[in-house]
Amino acid sequence: MFSSLSTAVVLSTVFSSVLCTPLSDQVAALRLDPTAVDRVNTLSLDKQFIFDFFNPPAGVTTGAAGHTVTATSGTFPAIVGNGVAMTVGFLGPCGINTPHTHPRATEINFSVNGTLRTGMLAENGARFIVNDLPPGSMTVFPQGSVHFEVNTGCEAAMFVAAFNSEDPGVSSLAQRFFGLPIDIIDATMGGLGIQQVEGLADKIPDNIAVGTDECLKRCNIARPPAQPTAQHQPRVSGNAFPTNTVLSAPVSSQPSAPASSNSTMPTSAPPASSASAVNSTVPASSSA
Ligand SMILES: *[C@@H]1O[C@H](CO)[C@@H](O)[C@H](O)[C@H]1NC(C)=O
Ligand SMILES: *[C@@H]1O[C@H](CO)[C@@H](O)[C@H](O)[C@H]1NC(C)=O
Ligand SMILES: *[C@@H]1O[C@H](CO)[C@@H](O)[C@H](O)[C@H]1NC(C)=O
Ligand SMILES: *[C@@H]1O[C@H](CO)[C@@H](O)[C@H](O)[C@H]1NC(C)=O
């Protein structure tokens, strides 16, 4: 952290107390300031009002197909009190920012130099929205709406997302859902089966993830055999998987599919282009 600033500390001990303050301490001090004027004066260096997305001090989220950089009150103290935040995304060819929501902010999202397919599903009852964003255009994702974005091009693409909260937060749908207790997931999936749920959960890749089969084929990119999965919700006793035996009695009331089937993503995913690689085995017994 602050490695790029460390030379400045050496050059000028006058500023050292400011520069060495951890981000959280700076944010705490700013939150105690009684007025906006005090906040401006608390940040005594002009450069503290700059966040460099190409060389960020923090706020990086990385997956197999790109990364995002986020400037919020957690990574950029000058934002405190201003009610805005920004994310810049660097999507590799076919990279996907997997479905997620922002619990505390509406997002407007500007495509800089690539064509990005966006999908958005607001609350229950709202219709599904899909768009291609060519360079120079933007779209809006209402607060709390589920949305995803795919770079449909064969070159890297950059987007800029602005938020009307300094702490918009992010909830990644797949990671959240599969972080719930195993029996709850199983029940929600109509009694899919514990081992099937485990197979699905194992595969959820970190953001930015490798995108659709259609894009990979068109761009002549091989799907990597595995992607990092460090963004999974940690398992504790309350949401742990049972030890890897055949279904224990209380978990699933249904005689679910035999353990031989190991599907990947749920078939409900709209761009169902993954049929080639996958035996999508939702048991025929899943009558609602
Ligand atoms: C903004 O949209 C692009 C695609 O249009 C997407 O890749 C990106 O994830 C979006 N940004 C955020 C923060 O959701
Ligand atoms: C878009 O901009 C990013 C960041 O500068 C760059 O990495 C990427 O290669 C650019 N893509 C195109 C198609 O110009
Ligand atoms: C499902 O597949 C994953 C990876 O391919 C594997 O780690 C896991 O053990 C499998 N689960 C079952 C129940 O076969
Ligand atoms: C897919 O299912 C078929 C029939 O159930 C089976 O023969 C085949 O081995 C399965 N393929 C994979 C990859 O699991």
Automatic annotation (TrEMBL):
<feature type="signal peptide">
    <location>
        <begin position="1"/>
        <end position="20"/>
    </location>
</feature>
<dbReference type="Pfam" id="PF00190">
    <property type="entry name" value="Cupin_1"/>
</dbReference>
<keyword id="KW-0732">Signal</keyword>
<keyword id="KW-0964">Secreted</keyword>
<feature type="region of interest" description="Disordered">
    <location>
        <begin position="225"/>
        <end position="288"/>
    </location>
</feature>
<feature type="compositionally biased region" description="Low complexity">
    <location>
        <begin position="248"/>
        <end position="288"/>
    </location>
</feature>
<dbReference type="GO" id="GO:0030145">
    <property type="term" value="F:manganese ion binding"/>
</dbReference>
<dbReference type="InterPro" id="IPR014710">
    <property type="entry name" value="RmlC-like_jellyroll"/>
</dbReference>
<keyword id="KW-0464">Manganese</keyword>
<dbReference type="InterPro" id="IPR001929">
    <property type="entry name" value="Germin"/>
</dbReference>
<dbReference type="GO" id="GO:0005576">
    <property type="term" value="C:extracellular region"/>
</dbReference>
<dbReference type="InterPro" id="IPR006045">
    <property type="entry name" value="Cupin_1"/>
</dbReference>
<keyword id="KW-0479">Metal-binding</keyword>
<feature type="compositionally biased region" description="Polar residues">
    <location>
        <begin position="228"/>
        <end position="247"/>
    </location>
</feature>
<protein>
    <submittedName>
        <fullName>RmlC-like cupin domain-containing protein</fullName>
    </submittedName>
</protein>
<comment type="similarity">
    <text>Belongs to the germin family.</text>
</comment>
<dbReference type="InterPro" id="IPR019780">
    <property type="entry name" value="Germin_Mn-BS"/>
</dbReference>
<dbReference type="InterPro" id="IPR011051">
    <property type="entry name" value="RmlC_Cupin_sf"/>
</dbReference>
<feature type="domain" description="Cupin type-1">
    <location>
        <begin position="51"/>
        <end position="198"/>
    </location>
</feature>
